[in-house]
Design a protein that fits this description.
Blueprint (H helix, E strand, L loop, with lengths): L6 E5 L5 H13 L5 E4 L2 H6 L7 E4 L7 H14 L4 H7 L10 E7 L5 H16 L3 E7 L9 H7 L4 E4 L2 H14 L5 E4 L23 E4 L3 H6 L5 H16 L3 E4 L4 E2 L2 E2 L1 H11 L5 E3 L5 H8 L4 E4 L2 H9 L4 E5 L2 H11 L6 E3 L7 H12 L1 H34 L2
Parallel strand pairs: 1-2, 1-4, 2-3, 4-5, 5-6, 6-7, 8-9, 8-13, 9-12, 13-14, 14-15
Antiparallel strand pairs: 10-11
Helix pairs in contact: 1-15, 9-10, 9-14
Length: 399
């Protein structure tokens, strides 16, 4: 790059509207317009990030087979694993050194297939003299017991956890490491401050009397009994239709071909469309989807940022979770996980999700009041992430 820029990286693309929501929110918090290195830059152009960032698409080896062969050969001969990252990130590693690079954390460290790239990118930036920040992250505590993961995380200048379970585990990791300059902070996910955009609601969506429902292939991949996720969602929709007067809105939050919420959503819609009680919300930007979620009465969701959109709109929410992120966020909001998070791994009987919804319905007023009381201060704490990035940027660019 020709001039020093603030860089954001490890962004998988806005087809995952949770990824989009983190970047969108952080960009609205900070003073600098960042360079966003994106695995799918075309997705970011399509949704809400076009005016907020300077978008640079990664060079993907699947699009350049010859380059893949050449770099693979070079890496085998030289042992230079970081060369893959330098190729993918292109001119970010040429010209002036970026003073600060922010890894858009989320739950990236929860996926085995991302750990190597995270380590290599962090190392490559450090080798250039760039300070790195891991932002808005959730990490399974047991993962921090691994030496290679701990060594990678210790290279960051600052890590901002988005919930207390991860934060406490990181502090223990730091204590085990001994003397270190690593800074560990804990602020709520930036997406708690995401600005909603309200579009006209589709016919059949009754504002204030509709249950928002999100289901994803991700929780299906983590179920302990094959098929139990969709059995449970079918039973839930039937329960709502037979026992309440509420409408149901099926809302996607990730639309990647490899993990598309619209596929299980279409199955549910086809099963109940003739009841006249179920509508589908089309794909849209993270802000547009939050605009729909925020007008629900209750929400049952699998994708973390779909549930964050609900929480931050003070909509009582049941999370069908599979990792530390759901547990940690619920713990921080309610001082409890039970009744607020239903781990998909624990699902054995199709009635369990409907029972969880019944508890949510019975306690909706208390939950809504709780969210309304704590959300202003919770969102103020989330803004501290942006202030920290601004502070580090001012400090780094003067070095």
């Amino acid at each position: 790059m020709d001039e020093k820029k603030l860089v954001m990286y490890m962004h998988a693309g806005s087809g995952n509207h949770g990824c989009e929501a983190i970047v969108n929110s952080v960009c609205h918090m900070i003073k600098e317009k960042p360079v966003l290195v994106s695995y799918y830059g075309s997705e970011d152009e399509r949704y809400s990030l076009r005016e907020l960032c300077e978008i640079k698409s990664e060079r993907r080896f699947e699009d350049h087979r010859l380059a893949h062969i050449l770099y693979y050969g070079y890496r085998r001969l030289s042992g230079d694993e970081e060369s893959f990252i330098r190729y993918r990130y292109g001119d970010v590693f040429r010209g002036k050194v970026p003073p600060l690079a922010v890894s858009i954390g989320g739950d990236n460290y929860c996926y085995d297939n991302m750990l190597k790239d995270l380590r290599l990118a962090n190392s490559a930036f450090n080798r250039k003299g760039t300070r790195t920040v891991l932002l808005g992250c959730s990490i399974e505590p047991e993962l921090l017991e691994r030496k290679d993961i701990a060594e990678d995380l210790m290279r960051y200048h600052t890590i901002i956890a988005r919930e207390s379970i991860t934060c406490h585990a990181l502090l223990k990791m730091k204590e085990r490491a001994g003397e270190t300059d690593l800074r560990i902070l804990c602020y709520p996910d930036p997406a708690f401050t995401l600005r909603a955009k309200e579009l006209p609601l589709p016919k059949g969506f009754t504002a204030g009397n509709t249950v928002g429902v999100n289901v994803s292939p991700m929780i299906q991949d983590n179920e302990s009994r094959a098929g139990i996720t969709m059995e449970s969602y079918h039973y839930l929709l039937r329960f709502i239709i037979e026992n309440t007067d509420m409408q149901i809105a099926l809302i996607p939050h990730v639309v990647w071909a490899r993990s598309d919420d619209r596929k299980p959503i279409q199955e549910l819609y086809d099963a109940f469309r003739n009841t006249g009680r179920v509508v589908q919300i089309p794909d849209g930007s993270c802000q547009e989807l939050k605009g729909a979620i925020g007008r629900c009465r209750l929400f049952v969701g699998a994708r973390t940022h779909a549930t964050i959109a609900a929480y931050s709109s003070c909509v009582p929410t049941l999370v069908v979770g599979y990792s530390v992120k759901a547990a940690g966020i619920a713990q921080d909001l309610f001082d409890a996980q039970e009744n607020y998070v239903l781990p998909v791994q624990s699902l054995r009987h199709r009635e369990e999700l409907a029972r969880g919804f019944s508890w949510l319905l019975a306690n909706e007023n208390e939950i809504r009041t709780r969210l309304s009381e704590i959300m202003p201060s919770y969102q103020e704490r989330a803004v501290e992430t942006g202030k920290e990035v601004d502070r580090l940027w001012e400090e780094c660019r003067l070095l």
